[in-house]
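Deliverable D4.2, example record:
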Amino acid sequence: MSSTSRRRVIAIAALLAAAPTLAACGAGFDANTNIPYAPTEAGVHMVGDGADRDYGHNGVKIAQAFILGPDSGGQIAAGGSAPLYLSLVNTNTTADALTAIVPDSGQADSVRIPGAFQLSPNTLAKSTGTTVEGLKQTLLGGESVKLTLRFKNAGDVIMSVPVIPRSREFATLPPAPNAQPPAADTTTTEATTTDTATTEATGTETGTGTEATHGH
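Output generated by the structure prediction step:
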């Protein structure tokens, strides 16, 4: 057998050996894509079971939902407000509208939606200037707030919306108006002050001792 024929046989054998593996990868990929994507950070309402499971409610899909918390290490005190960010898609053939957002009464007083929030068919809509008002607890980041989104046609959608710290990819967003920055680290300052005071005291004592010696 020539070297060319030998190489061809080896290549065919390798392809046949890899075929089951390639088929398994394809099956796994198909299995993953058969499950509709649902953003886990927003706790989006899920409907259906198995392969028919989908996210959304009556044609309205919520692609993203989060409350912007304070900078890492900071806080938004109880009684304050926090920005709410929403991205929604209306997959129906007719327009819809987000008419109100009602928070859990034990977590906040209200949600302010400036202006009309219209949802045109098959168009991504994002909230602007929406805020959760009258927080009942201090927010540090990592909590969740239960909200009921009320749509004109789609009805109510109840969600547990996460509070995301203002860091990393969220660091460029405007901070909450009353967010308190992280507490300053006073350890270094205190240590420096103590060292300075000790040095000054030592210098004073040394100078006094020298003067006393010269006096004698």
